[in-house]
Design brief:
alpha+beta, 22 strands, homodimer, 6-stranded antiparallel β-sheet
């Protein structure tokens, strides 16, 4: 069967509408052929299939497929019905009551346990999922049933591509290289005192040598890419409230990986005295007591780096000649709650990234993505002399919104830069160390940014992961500066000496 | 009256100790003159004032002042008593029961409502606070009563200096200057498009011009201070777990100002599906539901910048010639939940700071503080040409642990750098824009760091607040580069143009 909506409900009237029975009959009959099919393919509109008058109610049963859905049908009918009843019979239409709202949709498999707002039951039988909605007039007006249907359709689609994983298609590959080093660079860095684990999970404290590597990579990106391409440095915020993730789309599905941030319920020292006193007496921080004393999470620590930039442009109309806008940020850390286990620096909960953002017309954004790719190619080939490749993958925003799946190569999407880590062996997984994404109108539209010319606006972003660059470079070149490419050695200068311990 | 402890309790014995009555009597009589007074001034030890035998218990009442406190008295007596009963009577001492534990301490005023672990009542009467403790053997062994007493003494001390505020004593002051600008720089920066408010409270998004100011200040600090003084850059973590704040002392009292961080209880997408689905249907983030699904806070966002550095040295013994250690960090944001109201850039919840840390022998640390102060003087006088002063204040760590009060000037303590903001008028409050602190052995001791030579280790820290430097510089010099000091203009270069909006 096809998707089907069935709504039983009624228009509440200010008086018994029986005197208007014939007029209503004529109106509904006509509506079934006119306003309830308008915009739908032939024979696919909504239909009022039953109706009667019961005191101050006009009861009706409406059915539809995906075009002119039953709630839209009711809303389309309300106004002209009210006009007819008012003018000829002085009867007002007071509102809509929904007795039942059913959506039936085909699915090869059931969806498992789900708790969805406004859905009172989900039953799977013989290829059909039957949803019973608990909605009223305001939910119809807010198109809540549309959002529920979209959600279910996404879940059904995910079931069928679930096993297929991400799209991946190679775009360019460097020649294969001989690598001078085959160790795990993190282990070697720890051994040589370049860094140490931090106190929190997936976190490192970078000593002088590791920090020098990061700052050198950063300077290479600034000098070889950002300055030549006309970028301005900005400082993006690092505590990200829901408001930003609602507009960026992350609020749809980023929850499993967020480090959530909760403020104190109050800053009154008296309110917190109990906690301080508990600690001073027991020498244990009372984390459960603190959880009671903090507010609901207001958002999280920086996850993707560019969303908190966008409020800078939010609601603005920008002169056409300001585009393409080119800005970058390197002002702080990003945090992701990654899966457990001990990993090296290539997989961390706290990391450092130069985030590059550009925006303009679709043509400008796509053209600029190509310029960036050329600069990266120059850096990876001529300065770092890496073995690497780039591939077209599922756009990050689809992945982060829980929409993994197939995305054919086009103008909108993500290019991942990947490199082999020799210590993982010939068949070992390559490490993604960088991306370039064209995000279409997602951000300008989410944050309501307009171009003076009226042209559509697109944007792109590219994240330079310093932990990842270090992991790749050191895995291929080792920790001995004598083995490093000349162009890199010139830029890194004399490596600082780290602290020695007994 | 003086501080007094009274403990009623008993040693549990493996059999009726009546046969040993005379031996116990002799032992207690002697103990009152020997082991219970050892280390205490004449006549100020603990005393066993009553005792008897009741079946398999030796009941006793012990009193003491602040020396050889009653719990120490019991612990001192236990072993020799057990030796006597074991050898001569084959009776074992099985443990200690505490029937009641009372502390009476003088206070001019009552302390108000308090909830303190192991304290079942707090009564104030006629200049005396009477605490009834609910403790057992393991709390006696862990010196819980000592911690409770210390806590109460601190609270009583706070009552009496509560009104006096922080210590403040001027150390140096520049000559008074004519200022070319008298506006509020934040308002002017917003007007000229240098920055905009971020989406979270007390947070800014810095445009190209404001960022250029920050980066120029940072470069001045690197070139004029950090490099000449032999500093190495490191990267300190920015998510700070309790473990770090326990060792740094912040766990004693920093709670009212922390942005707390809670991880997801699990990273399983199925666990979070309900939250995603709720958002997709309602377009509202269900913050209360999320609070149920996250764990207790594991710590907070970076508050003071140096504590998360110290695990790098934790538990290490360091060769003597590595000192003084000199490192700095500028890798991310700090966050403080500040009091409400709309403020400019000089008072923010999210800010950027270069944190400077040094450690060595007390002489090295004090001497290096002076070197830093000379470099700052050079920067503020010769490059920024500010009107400023420095003052000796309550050490930050006393303030952050809730120990405000008088601290006389000595070697350990904090120097605040302050500057007038002309727009606040002649009598307006000066802004603290920078500090230099000598912290004594606080950190090396808290993190158990040792010097090979066995010398005591001290440390110092100095925070360069970039928002504060900007606020002071722009308040005194205005936003027009033509009005800026030549030495600064040389370093800032041509100011970038920010984005224009319609």
């Amino acid at each position: 069967m096809e998707l089907q909506f069935t709504l039983k409900g009624s228009f509440k009237t200010s008086a018994d509408a029986s005197p208007a029975k014939d007029v209503i009959d004529a109106f509904f009959t006509e509506a079934n052929e006119t306003i309830l099919t308008k915009g739908a393919p032939e024979g696919e509109g909504a239909r009022i299939v039953e109706w009667d008058i019961d005191g101050d109610r006009i009861n009706l049963v409406v059915k539809s497929g995906k075009h002119v859905r039953v709630h839209d049908a009711l809303l389309r009918v309300r106004k002209p019905l009210a006009a007819k009843l008012g003018k000829e019979f002085h009867i007002g239409v007071r509102g809509i009551d929904v007795e039942s709202y059913i959506i039936e949709l085909p699915s090869e498999k059931p969806l498992g346990e789900l708790k969805i707002p406004y859905v009172s039951s989900i039953v799977y039988d013989n290829g059909i999922i039957t949803l019973t909605l608990d909605v009223g007039e305001s939910e119809l007006e807010n198109r809540v049933p549309d959002r529920i249907l979209k959600l279910m359709e996404d879940k059904i689609a995910a079931l069928s591509y679930g096993g297929k994983g991400e799209h991946w298609e190679i775009l360019w590959e460097s020649e294969k290289k001989e690598h001078v080093f085959s160790g795990d660079p993190t282990k070697e860095m720890v051994k040589q005192g370049w860094l140490k684990r931090g106190a929190s999970r997936g976190q490192w404290i970078h000593g002088a040598q590791s920090t020098r590597m990061f700052r050198t990579f950063e300077r290479i990106v600034v000098e070889e890419l950002l300055e030549p391409l006309g970028y301005n440095e900005m400082i993006f915020p690092k505590l990200v409230p829901w408001e930003v993730w609602e507009k960026s789309g992350h609020a749809k599905g980023v929850y499993p990986e967020i480090y959530y941030v909760c403020p104190p319920k109050t800053r009154d020292p008296k309110y917190w005295e109990e906690v301080s006193d508990y600690y001073k007496v027991t020498h244990e921080v009372p984390t459960a007591m603190i959880k009671e004393k903090i507010g609901d999470p207001i958002g999280g620590m920086c996850y993707a780096q560019c969303p908190p930039f966008w409020p800078y442009l939010q609601g603005e109309t920008i002169p056409t000649d300001e585009f393409p806008i080119k800005v970058f940020d390197r002002s702080g850390t990003s945090h992701r709650y990654e899966s457990g286990g001990i990993h090296g620096m290539e997989r961390v909960d706290e990391f450092h990234r130069v985030e590059i953002v550009w925006a303009g017309t679709p043509e400008q954004v796509v053209a600029h993505s190509k310029e960036l790719q050329e600069r990266y190619l120059h850096i990876f080939n001529d300065i770092l002399e890496l073995e690497w490749r780039k591939a077209w993958v599922t756009p990050w925003f689809m992945a982060q919104e829980g929409l993994d799946g197939i995305s054919e190569q086009g103008e909108i999407g993500t290019i991942d830069y990947e490199a082999p880590l020799p210590y993982r062996g010939d068949g070992g997984e390559w490490l993604e160390f960088q991306n370039v994404s064209v995000n279409g109108n997602k951000y300008p539209s989410g944050f309501n940014v307009k171009c003076q010319s009226g042209d559509e606006l697109w944007s792109g972003c590219s994240g330079v992961g310093l932990e990842r660059w270090s992991s790749v470079f050191l895995a291929q070149k080792g920790l001995d500066p004598d083995d490093w490419p000349e162009e890199f050695r010139k830029r890194v200068g004399e490596m600082p000496r780290g602290l020695r311990f007994l």
